[in-house]
Predict the 3D structure of the following.
Amino acid sequence: MTISLILIFVALLALGLVVRLAKGRASVSEVLQNPNEHLQSVDVEAFRNLVDPGEEEFLRSNLAPAEFRRIQRERLRAAADYVSCAAQNAAILLRLADAGRRSPDPATAEAAEKLVNNALRLRLYALQAIPRLYLGMILPGVRISPVGIAERYEQMTRLVVLLGCLQYPTRGISAAL
Amino acid sequence: MSASITLFYYLWIAPHVLETIILFAMVRRGLHRQFPMFFLYISFEIAQCFCLLYVSQYISYFSEVYFQVYAVGLAISAAIRFAVIYELFCHFFRRYPAISGAGKLLFRAASLVLLLTALGLAVSAPGNAPAASLNDATYVALKTTTFAADRAVSILQGGLLISLFLFSRYFVLSWRSPAFGIALGMGTFAIAEFANTALRLYVPFSNKLYDRAAMGIYHFCVLIWILYVVRPEPELRFELRSLPTYDLEIWNQELERLLRQ
């Protein structure tokens, strides 16, 4: 009877999940209309500094071990927030670019295609980087190297600017975001 | 004919009659070329229904022969459903080559985990108590095995579709309407079928009720498929403006400059 109840609970949960996922699909157009309201600013340089191994070494050699661990945890928590933020932005840009892929204009479609691929890679990278950052918080001595995510983010931002300019040549770069 | 029997025949025949609308719409919109396995699945379901109807009316009225034909049909249907799910995965990741590797990994990992879960549940499941009217042990064994296999298949299929939904949710991937509808219908059917067979196994109650519930769920899923296959793809309100050629050239140069920085 207990197994039965668990199975029914799991089935109901799964059904609810499917319905929720299906509903989530409807909110996409709202993000496309007002991407500006959903995008958050991400300081790539600050993120680079937070995950810079040289900076970490400097702190390690100049601080007491307990103090270093405390500060390193805070740095990694901040870095994880940056990655989450970048991944969130990538999700919004993905929606924007995915719509742009359907453009009849080949250049816009091509730029959108590149942006989609970059944003997807960023989300994939964030999926791997965030657990590693959290692992670093638990074990502050562990080496982590998510610097590549900053480069990916920069590359993606350049593509967004291009896509915006291709779509709205008269409105300037800000129209993309 | 009593209301119960009328309901039974309605739930049995109506979804398969409605499935002919799906076939017609798929051919009309060219979807049978994009989703050949789903087209095959719907065709098979229609053929199976009329075959079972013939067996029940003219050969053996819902007894052993009928159930043997039903079990074979269910096995073929389950195999085609797996092909449909694989087709959905392929259709989906073809549009997003950047994550096709991660998608394939997900498909394999999810299949393995779900297969182990399904096997674990199948091994730990209690045997079905034979109904009073059924004396033939082979028939009972066939029925028990069929339901156990159906449950395992439902776990695998429902789990794979949920994985696909979650994956697409995380990566904010857009679904084309027919693909989404097929996945939604398949997922709903697999999960509800899993709940139904689990209840049937662990909570012995009226088999008639469980049968009607399963048929009702299938009817509902057919309506989902019709909704997504028949209706045209909704247009995005997001508008892209056409650009003069000279602007494109200017901005292409800008791109090159930006990428070389």
In short: Helices of chain A lie at 2-24, 28-33, 35-38, 44-50, 53-62, 65-100, 106-138, 147-167. Chain A touches chain B through 48 residues (CB under 8 Å). Chain A has eight helices and no strands.
